[in-house]
Design a protein that fits this description.
alpha+beta, Alpha-Beta Plaits, eight-stranded mixed β-sheet, globular, Adenylyl/Guanylyl_Cyclase_3/4, Guanylate cyclase domain-containing protein, Nucleotide_cyclase
């Protein structure tokens, strides 16, 4: 493939990656019949995907009880609103699941992790279930943060917090040591969306000048 063709197929872009999973999923399903597990997953994935798509995100994949979604892959580029949408989606998904019994009888708790950073976007794959649509360390960072999130919380990396701090209210958490990272990661808990005063001006995205 020529360099020009590669450039058309792939582009470097800043995105926000969201991971969500069910707390204690393995022990929850260990004694369940596979048909019940499937019904639980179907309800869970349906709720998550509906909220993600309504918030402008793209589902990259389902893995067991985990969902990975990406925000900001559009040709219009990345900005504070794309990252804030990802955070709002995380909060909204948890709210939706709190009021739902999956498979008619299971109340679940979840944890959400989000990270923002540069990736290579496969333009052809940038659609729902476009596995491998993005490549970059931000994917593993988001997955790691999700694993360290307290139950029923949405946690974000420092880059996500920095670009959305006027759109989302946060609580700073103690830094966490993450496997594979040489230094602790700053961690913020998303609390709720907040209003931006009229006339506050345009918000800049990550890396904007």
């Amino acid at each position: 493939m020529t360099a020009i063709a590669m450039a058309e197929q792939e582009r470097r872009q800043t995105v926000t990656v969201l991971f969500i999973d069910i707390v204690g999923f393995t022990s929850l399903v260990d004694e369940l019949d596979c048909a019940v597990v499937r019904a639980l997953q179907r309800d869970y994935f349906s709720t998550v995907s509906e909220v993600v798509r309504a918030g402008g995100g793209v589902i990259e994949k389902y893995v067991g009880d985990a969902v990975m979604a990406v925000f900001g892959t559009g040709a219009g580029g990345f900005g504070a609103e794309a990252a804030a949408s990802a955070v709002r989606v995380g909060l909204s998904v948890q709210e939706a699941l709190r009021g739902q019994l999956l498979a008619g009888r299971f109340a679940v708790r979840t944890r959400v992790g989000l990270a923002t950073g540069d990736v290579i976007v496969d333009v052809e794959a940038a659609r729902d279930f476009g596995h491998g649509m993005i490549s970059g360390s931000v994917v593993s960072t988001a997955a790691r943060l999700q694993a360290y999130a307290p139950h029923d919380t949405v946690v974000v990396c420092a880059a996500t917090q920095a670009v959305t701090d006027r759109l989302i209210a946060y609580q700073e958490l103690p830094p966490v040591r993450v496997a594979g990272k040489p230094y602790p990661l700053d961690l913020w808990r998303a609390l709720q969306p907040q209003r931006v005063p009229v006339g506050a001006g345009q918000l800049c995205g990550v890396g904007a000048e």
